[in-house]
Amino acid sequence: MFPILQLGPLALYVPALALLAGVWVGAWLVEKEAIRLGLHGETISTLVFIGLVAGLIGARLWYVAHNLGAYAADPIALFSLSPATLTPGAGLLIGIAAAGLYGLRRVLPPRTTLDALAPGLATMLVAIGCAHLASGDGFGEPAQLPWSIFLWDADRHPSQVYEIVGALIVLGAWWRLRGRRPFDGFGFLLVVALSAAARLFLEAFRGDSALIAGGLRAAQVGALLILALCLIGMDIWGRAPRPGAVEAARHRL
Amino acid sequence: MKSCRRSYPNKPKSLYGMAVIVLMQSARRWRIFIAVVLLLGAGWTWLSRVPALGADVGQIPSPRVGFPAPDFALATLRGERTRLAAQRGNVVIVNLWASWCGPCRAEMPAIQQVYLAYYDHGLRVLAVNSTIQDSEENARAFTQELGLTFPVLLDQDGAVTRRYLVRALPSTFVVDRRGVVRAVIFGGASMAALQSAVEPLLKDAP
């Protein structure tokens, strides 16, 4: 765990740096993939940029809206950004909505665009794992194992390392299969399905799970739902494959 | 798998090839695959559920959100001894600072204002001077210069600085009435950020 990097008088928040690096690498991969898929790279980069900025502003404004009294008395504080003063869930939804609107406006092919975004998503999941490792969030259950890490007063599963390895496997699977899409949207569904499967499996080793009825872990139930939607989506989208896709896939093997 | 291979003259050489054929050519097999995956997933979710009170969140004192704030007892600048646990029932801002730290100087007036505004609602401030990397004289001069009225505690041996895993100054921990850390702010906190962190906690019944 290494949350702050102190460079003289400058204190850098390492988890934020990890996320920033994830955005940078992810955006680069997305643009490369968009060009490979025959999309206009700059348009897709703009879509990503709009999604990120709208998400950040949305997360901030949502937080401010819920604490309007405090910010009305001190409006300059609106520009004082801190992870503690963001609402991530709202930011995610607003970012997706803004990017979706931009995509509609530019008449981007939805499934191919989603395929182009897939490596960005996989990269961000690696970055989130690194951010968790730096901050100590997403920690594991107490366990006496040869590979346990000492964190928060206990030997624990290195769940952040599991998270990074899982995300790297998803990224590797996408990389290996990216040239073999049997239908448009396959790359995106593959990344989301594998990420959901990884979360479903690895959540069991987390020590900070939010619980719902019967002691079930909320993240596992959510991941199972997402996995089901992806597999059903593959079934529906895969029924009408691109002409010659199956033969092409078979011949490439 | 064998029957699938027999069905096609161009035999695929990898699992991926087999999966493509299953996906594209046999909706029935794909649906069976979905059912098996979801059943295994549901089974794993059930097996890994947490027994009542099994989660360690809320059990071990740690300086992070959701955990009980690590307790400490330190002498103040006035020579009294103050303990965090003695503030149970109040919302507490634990702020770690040093006199040489610019952002600490910038945020202290905001902490003072919030302290005065919410004291009657049950807000307390424990400003822990990281004296191991400062000095008592400088802390006293700083406190007098800024007119701080809340208790300033002296962490002479750095025990609290270490216990709160402080990597940068200032670091602010907002502790609710039950003694649980509810917000952590690294770097200077604005008055609005402090207000938005403490206001919801003050609404909880003592």
Give a description of the structure.
The complex is a heterodimer of chains A (253) and B (206). With 253 residues, chain A is mostly helical. Chain A has a domain at 4-8 and 110-252. Helices cover 64% and strands 6% of the residues of chain A. Chain A contains nine helices and four strands, in the order ββαααααββαααα. Chain A has a two-stranded antiparallel ribbon with strand order 1-2. In chain A, strands 3-4 form a two-stranded antiparallel sheet. In chain A, strand 1 (4-7) and strand 2 (10-13) form a beta hairpin. The longest helix of chain A has 26 residues, at 41-66. Chain B has 206 residues and is α/β, with parallel strands linked by helices. Chain B has two domains: 2-47; 73-202, Glutaredoxin, CATH 3.40.30. In chain B, 40% of the residues lie in helices and 17% in strands. Chain B has helices at 2-7, 15-25, 27-47, 102-118, 136-146, 159-163, 191-202, and strands at residues 73-75, 81-83, 91-97, 123-129, 152-154, 171-175, 181-186. A five-stranded mixed β-sheet of chain B has the order 5-4-3-6-7, with helices on one face. A two-stranded antiparallel ribbon of chain B has the order 1-2. Chain B is elongated. Chain B starts with a helix and ends with a helix.
